[in-house]
User: Fold this.
Amino acid sequence: MSTTHDDAPLAAQVRHLEAVLEERGWLAPGEIDERLDAFAAGGSPAHGAAIVARAWIDPDFRARLLADASAAIGELGFSMGGALQEQELIVVANDADEHHVVVCTLCSCYPIALLGPSPSWYKSEAYRSRVVRDPRGVLGELGLELPASTRITVWDASAESRYLVLPRRPEGTDDLTEAELAGLVTRKGLIGTAAV
Amino acid sequence: MPDHPDRFAPGDPVRTRITDPPGHTRLPRYARGARGVIVSTAGHHPLADERARGLPSAPRAVHHVRFAARDLFGEGDHAVVVELWEDYLEPDEERSSR
Amino acid sequence: MSRINDVGGMVGFPPIVEEPDEPAFHADWEAHVVALNAAMIRRGVYNLDEFRDAIERIPPDQYLAASYYEKWLRAITTLLAEKGVVTPAELAGA
Assistant:
């Protein structure tokens, strides 16, 4: 990470603000650094991939995941507990007939505690405005062409749930290990803008 | 009895409110005044509108409401599920009386 | 209220641009903004909905021109001033 020339004034403003808050006792010394370390060690798309891979190989886990995702991910050592407000994880499963895609049209809600920060395109006005109205067009733009017969459901994260898409297991992956299967899963697949 | 007993259950047809309250709200404009169906209940939470004003707010039901794209935008063959506090919803009398 | 953040269903925004191998943050200050916001919310200076509200109150032309974390920084400073945590003069570095 680096601070570019263009946003040097913003970086200076943040440093100044932290100094003022610390001086006034609104921030403890080292508090920001502790939080930065916690982020670095926190959510990651790999957590989502591990959840998907387990659901692909273990039908009982898959059933528990779809019934109560916040509890089921605890079996893999994950939790939704790091969020700033109480949140529930909802997992929606793609199948041959229906494809799910996630957005937050009002802001940028995303399971950050589980997956880390969302990609910039997810937070863009372009994605947020268009995917609810023309999901097929947006998915095509992002490289996912679905059969005309596949129904699309868009989930707008407008309240306290956070969503994760469970992609379909690709054909020809019967011989792969759980770790190899997890390696196939992308962040876009977890949002629903890629097949896997 | 809780402060806010659930007014809706899965399967109920609902209509979203038309009014646009002053300040923060979590009913997107595109889903205002629209007809949908409750698919599931997404827990009970204080109303975001009230929390944003720094007001105390008792938890009340939040629902996943499914809309046909055609009922939101006049076109499209997809569905949109929006997560809405009960405060934003009214029973769709026309459809529930059928 | 229908504010500039409420973009669902609008037309006219540009194509969606993906950044290959995008890092979690593009600059250190962005991560600091996220950490600062979390610290203020956990301390009870303001809550998450007040924070969202402050972002939504950014005038539309400025909302659309600002980067994602610029909006966050602006909302944080707005709330800190409104809550009386820091004065505008302190914010300006005076």
Q: What stands out?
A: The first helix of chain C runs from residue 28 to 42. The mean pLDDT of chain C is 94. The helical segments of chain C are 28-42, 48-56, 60-65, 68-82, 88-91. The radius of gyration of chain C is 15 Å.
